[in-house]
Design a protein that fits this description.
Keywords: DNA-binding, Transcription, Transcription regulation. 66% of the residues lie in helices and 12% in strands. Strand 2 and strand 3 form a beta hairpin. The chain is built from five helices and three strands, in the order ααβααββα. Helix 2 packs across helix 5. The protein has 119 residues and is mainly alpha-helical.
Length: 119
């Protein structure tokens, strides 16, 4: 899945949808979380994520095509980094949304439990 170059013939929300499709896998999110900490070699990502090299390679290719990571070769090692600091900010925003949603669900559950305990 390669993101086409932006053009006047497609609305921005379609490009955003393509970006989110590229992010829509737990391995890709975990990869981005690790890269948000610092650039890493593929060997480090493999050790941290614990999947087969061929699978990680496929996920990294999706992220590269989406333009969210970049790769550079250093001898036999390939190092990945986030293409833009906003990717880390986007991950942090998603975490905030999820934590707020969870807090709201916990509050609603506590309210239900209190209502059940009333005579």
């Amino acid at each position: 899945m390669s993101l086409p170059p932006p053009g006047a013939d497609r609305p921005v929300h379609e490009f955003k949808a393509e970006l989110f499709k590229a992010l829509a896998h737990p391995v890709r999110i975990r990869t981005l979380e690790l890269l948000a900490e610092r650039p890493r070699a593929v060997s480090e990502l493999l050790a941290e994520i614990g999947i087969e090299a061929s699978h990680l390679s496929q996920h990294l290719a999706v992220l590269r095509r989406a333009g969210v990571v970049t790769a550079r070769r250093d001898g036999n090692a390939v190092h990945y980094t986030l293409a833009h600091p906003a990717v880390a900010q986007m991950l942090a925003a998603a975490r905030t949304v999820l934590l707020d949603t969870l807090a709201g669900a916990r509050t609603a559950l506590a309210d239900l439990e209190r209502d059940e305990q009333r005579p």
